[in-house]
Structure formats: structure tokens, C-alpha cells
Amino acid sequence: MIGELDQIALFKDLPYDCLDDISKFCARVHFEAGEFLITEGDSENPDLFILCDGSVEIVSNNSDCISNEIVLSKEQKDIFGEISWLTNANRTASVRCHDQVDAIRIDGRALMGYLEERPEAGFIITRKVANLLSQRMEETDKLLKQVLWNRHI
Questions:
Q1: 70: which residues sit within 8 A by CB, 6+ positions away?
Q2: Could you tell me the maximum CA-CA distance found in the chain, to the nearest angstrom?
Q3: Which uninterrupted H or E stretch holds 150?
Q4: Domain extent for 83
Q5: What CATH number does the domain containing 117 carry?
């Protein structure tokens, strides 16, 4: 598990002992096509997921603009569930398996507790989450501009 975590951008610069500690909060999980890893509106489960094999679709029913449409697809080694984990807010969308999926589930509460106890690891991961969210905001901004351009707004 440590070798896999070391390949994930979120954990890449952490020392071996931190990866070893974090690996104790991780479990390999398998899902079939059509199963949900995350359910929109859920407030009980702040776990993070790393997609190892397969593909998932991010879907939302809670918008005036879309109705159960695919919003985004995730590819291997991508992490998801980070917004709810970071903010303690309800899940903003559902994650449905497009085909068979192998993933790593990270216990969100255990990870947050660990990062509070190890501020040096917390700083590294917080900076990486900020970068990830910034990249996603840039992608969203580009998509929004394309939509507005296509609608001649």
C-alpha cells in the first residue's frame, strides 16, 4: 500500500514513516458497474477514494441546470471525495462506477486526526489539496466559458 500511496500526487512528498502511518487508514475496495461509491447529500462518510482501475462518473441530481447527468469522469490515480473530507459538508455529488472499479478507500476521519497530530504532514497534504482544487477550478472556469460562448451569452 505504501508504494501505491507514494505514486499519488496527494501523498508524493511525504516521508516513508508518514506513508506507513497513512497506509493503516487505507483499504482496497472493489465495486461493480453501476454501484455507487459516494452518494450525493451524504453527511456521514468523509472518506477519500483513489481510483486504481476502472472509471467512475460524477453525477448530480441537485442542480437546476442538470438532472442526473454525468458531470465529470475520473481516471486512474485520481482522488475524489476531498471536498466533503476537507469541509465536513454533505457530499456535493454521487460517484457511480462506469465499469468494474478497484480503488483505495482512505478513512477520512482517521486521516484528518492524523494530520492534526502531524502538522508537517498536514501542511504538505493541505498544500496539495489546495493545488488540486485550484486545478479543478481552472477546468471548471474553462468549461463555463465554453458553455457561455456556445450560448452566446
A1: 57, 58, 59
A2: 54
A3: helix 119-150
A4: 2-150
A5: 2.60.120.10
